[in-house]
Amino acid sequence: MTRVVYPGSFDPVTNGHLDIIRRTATIYDQVVVSVMVNINKKYRFTVEERVDMLREVTAGLDNVRVESSSGLLVDYCRREKFTTIVRGLRTVRDFEGELQMAQMNYGLAGVETVFMMTSQKYNFSSSLVKEVMHLGGDVSHLIAPTVLNRMKGSVAP
Questions:
Q1: Which listed residue, of 30, 78, 129, 136, carries a Cα 20 to 30 Å from 5's Cα?
Q2: Could you tell me if 12 and 47 are in contact, meaning their C-beta atoms sit under 8 angstroms apart?
Q3: End-to-end CA distance of the chain
Q4: SS3 of 81, please?
């Protein structure tokens, strides 16, 4: 069985994330979406809320599991026996940062990284979604309805 991990903060999960998850699920036997904790980031939603949102939007995907982890991604990969990480790329700028992380992950633990290009219609970040919504813009076409409802009910940082 080929298993991969798709890590991220998912704050909030967007249709772009969901697109990568769906496409990855057609290629691999099992996709584990891991909500990672980064102590340097300020989050709108708790880890538990982000896990719940991901479980809601991936409920129809039988080969997708959602969990959370903290610490180094490579330690998580070793512990859970993942040999491949999936990352979505929107722009060349994303690639520059992701390339360095991929090389570090491979150097530390021999874990490969597979890059998937996001679909053009999902070429935006979670941060941009939060900012647009905070300023009163309509983001309903960028996130799932359940995520939109949660965002409307939460207080922006």
A1: 129
A2: no
A3: 41
A4: coil
Is 121 part of the annotated catalytic residue set? no
126 labelled catalytic:
yes
Q: Which of 17, 44, 87, 150 is catalytic?
A: 17
The pTM assigned to this predicted structure is: 0.86
Contact 148, 137 (CB under 8 A): no
Q: Give the number of other Cβ atoms within 10 Å of residue 61's Cβ.
A: 17
For residue 7, the cross-strand partners are: 34
- Run means of pLDDT, 10 residues per run, the chain, 157 residues: 96 94 98 92 92 97 97 95 96 90 97 93 82 88 87 68
Catalytic residue, candidates 9, 34, 68, 126? 126
In 3D, which of 88, 121, 6, 99 has the Cα closest to residue 54?
Answer: 6
Which of 41, 79, 121, 134 is labelled catalytic? 41
Any catalytic annotation for residue 141? no
Please say whether the beta carbons of 37 and 70 come within 8 A: yes
Indicate if 134 belongs to the active site.
no
